[in-house]
Design goal:
The chain is an alpha+beta fold. It is built from four helices and twelve strands; from the N terminus they run H-H-E-E-E-E-H-H-E-E-E-E-E-E-E-E. Strands 1, 2, 3, 4, 5, 6, 7, 8, 9, 10, 11 and 12 form a twelve-stranded antiparallel beta sheet that branches.
């Protein structure tokens, strides 16, 4: 489902209509983007308060998005750390979903958890480049206040519990989000998205910016550049984490589940 607006009509569309149409676009887009694997190159930099770089980590991973019963989930399998290959990792995620689709999701979660050990800096779960689109999903967008100007849709979260949260022990803290989407006025495609999410101490703050581009082979908008930043607002002297990721070589694969029904003997 695409949002098509032209000429003066595009400028006069109410914000509520834009949000509703964008929500339909996101729903269709997340389904279309499922079962697509790409190559992710991620550079993580741990930076001191004075701006000096404390540590750098260079990761290359297979990155996979799969639509499950609970939504679209992202899985990473690190295949290279600081330009050194991780043994027996090549194409592991794709083969997993092709060879054993029934148990693939749980095994893929274990692989992704294993890959997190290569991260540096603040403890975090690897984010998906489609994460900002979640705020436009029907049923989620009602918790945000939207405004629109030309090709930009700005949002601010106004309802709790927030979409994003952070746990410290048994307590969950709300991370209230605000940001914007850059829309193509003619087609309604999302060209870029950015947001910042912050909460009370002792939580970390996060900002994320994504740029999307059309992949002609898939005929689909794909994330090509993602920038993440993590810091502690209540501890300005602490290190901050900056992560830059690029995505290439997108390809689709089909997952087929065959169910056999045994006929009982007479």
């Amino acid at each position: 489902m695409f949002l098509v607006l032209t000429g003066v009509l595009a400028q006069n569309v109410p914000t509520s209509v834009l949000v509703e149409r964008a929500g339909g676009y996101v729903t269709a887009y997340e389904t279309a983007f499922s079962a697509i694997v790409s190559e992710e190159h991620q550079v993580q930099r741990l930076i001191r308060a004075d701006g000096r770089v404390k540590q750098v980590r260079d990761l290359r991973s297979d990155f996979l998005l799969v639509k499950t019963a609970t939504g679209t989930q992202a899985f990473r399998d690190v295949i290279q750390v600081d330009r050194k290959p991780v043994r027996n990792r090549t194409d592991r995620l794709r083969k997993l979903f092709l060879d054993t689709p029934r148990a693939a999701v749980e095994q893929a979660r274990a692989i992704a958890k294993e890959s997190e050990r290569h991260n540096i800096g603040l403890q975090r779960t690897g984010n998906s480049p489609l994460l900002p689109l979640m705020f436009l999903r029907p049923g989620v967008s009602s918790g945000f206040r939207f405004t629109s100007t030309e090709g930009t849709l700005t949002f601010q979260e106004v309802r709790t519990p927030s979409v994003l949260g952070q746990r410290t022990g048994s307590a969950r803290f709300n991370l209230m989000s605000k940001g914007s989407f850059k829309l193509d006025r003619e087609s309604g495609r999302i060209l870029a998205a950015e947001f910042t999410a912050e909460g009370p101490p002792p939580t970390s703050a996060v900002s994320l910016t994504v740029r999307y581009s059309l992949d002609k082979n898939l005929d689909l908008m794909v994330p090509v550049d993602v920038r993440e930043r993590y810091w502690r607002p209540d501890k300005p002297k602490d290190d901050r984490l900056e992560v830059n990721s690029t995505y290439t070589n997108f390809r689709r694969f089909e997952v087929t589940v065959v169910q056999q029904i045994k006929t009982p003997r007479p």
